[in-house]
Amino acid sequence: MATIFSTARLHNKVVLVTGASSGIGAATAVLFSMAGANVVLAARRAEKLAEIEQACIQANKDGGTGKGGRYATLSLDVNNHGQVDSILSALPDWAAQVDVLVNNAGLALGTERVGDLKFDDVDRMLDTNVRGLIRMTQVFVNMFKARDAGHIINVGSIAGVEPYPGGSVYCASKFAVRAFTSALMKELYDTQIRVSNIQPGMVETEFSIVRFHGDKQNADKVYAGIEPLAAQDIADEIVWAASRAPHVNIAEVLIMPTNQAGPFHVARSTAK
Ligand SMILES: NC(=O)c1ccc[n+]([C@@H]2O[C@H](COP(=O)([O-])OP(=O)(O)OC[C@H]3O[C@@H](n4cnc5c(N)ncnc54)[C@H](OP(=O)(O)O)[C@@H]3O)[C@@H](O)[C@H]2O)c1
After folding, report:
1. Quick one: which atom of ligand 1 is closest to the CA of 107?
2. CA-based, 20 to 30 A from 244: which of 74, 191, 193, 216?
3. HEC profile for 47-107?
């Protein structure tokens, strides 16, 4: 009997990861490559994508499955309607049938309280985290419906479970992701299409640098005195969800560092 922990189910599958140029998306692309999948890496920064593509090639060799090994990078801004709507025509032939879509591209901008919100930030968060994810899903769900197969894995957040002051709009965006994902699952439960929401707590990536508009010192304070999750920890969960048996749908996962129990329940030690 094949082990239920096997990643063999991913061999030669086609996986498209948005936000693959950094953090969770990059780690996810690499881990899928190691498991023998073919991966399309999408994001705005082409040079970063090229670096991660090289890491995928290496991971595939290290994985040693002899499967997968096909990669493509795709310049994609999920806020660009034209790019998203025509994405299928931009995929290479081998990726014409995507099996797993990982909607990971997303960001938080600022920690202002309501009254001091900056509407450029508000718009970018809602556009990227919500509208971009919905638009990508709309394209691929029709491909999946036509084949009665496929897996949509959305990257939500603890912010979509427990709102916190200074995060009103980011939390609202991730609550929207959670609601959208749950509604979609209920639209598709009579099909073979799977829908998952992977919700990380604190993960050390470029996330906080982006949130603090490039202020690395402030970003570092977020992770002071605690061992945060690494991008690979979330990639593990995403690849695990994608590699379950076809009758198993991982609906929601909430993952936090051991010393975190909520957005502001963070046990910090000066010794760490
Ligand atoms: N880090 C955390 O603590 C944490 C916790 C919970 C949830 N999350 C979620 O995890 C996801 C990944 O974040 P991360 O922590 O890995 O942060 P990250 O290192 O900053 O990565 C974010 C990725 O999203 C991409 N992206 C941003 N805007 C985009 C756009 N308009 N179009 C296409 N791609 C875009 C970025 O690529 P380009 O800049 O190259 O486009 C980058 O690859 C996000 O949805 C985030 O909300 C993170």
Report:
1. 47
2. 74
3. HHHHHHHHHHHHHHHHHCCCCCCCEEEEECCCCCHHHHHCHHHHCCHHHCCCCEEEECCCC
Pocket test for ligand 1, best of 107, 162, 171 (most atoms within 8 A of CB): 107
For residues 128 and 132, give the distance between their C-alpha atoms in angstroms, rounded to a whole number: 5
- The Cα 25–Cα 77 span in angstroms is 14
Q: What is the largest CA-CA distance in the chain?
A: 59
Ligand 1 atom nearest residue 21's Cα: 43
> How far apart are the C-alpha atoms of 249 and 177, rounded to whole Å?
17
pLDDT at residue 271, as a whole number: 55
For 14-45, write each residue's pLDDT tens digit: 999 999 999 999 999 999 999 999 999 999 99
Residue spans of the domains in the chain: they are: 80-255
Domain 80-255 superfamily per CATH: NAD(P)-binding Rossmann-like Domain (3.40.50.720)
Q: What is the pLDDT of residue 6?
A: 77
Residue in this structure with the two tokens 């000066």, named with its chain if needed: 270
- The binding-site residues of ligand 1, defined as CB within 6 angstroms of any ligand atom, are 18-19, 21-25, 43-45, 48, 76-79, 104-107, 128, 132, 155, 157, 200, 202-203, 205-207, 210, 231
pLDDT digits (tens, 9 = 90+) for 110-166: 999 999 999 999 999 999 999 999 999 999 999 999 999 999 999 999 999 999 999
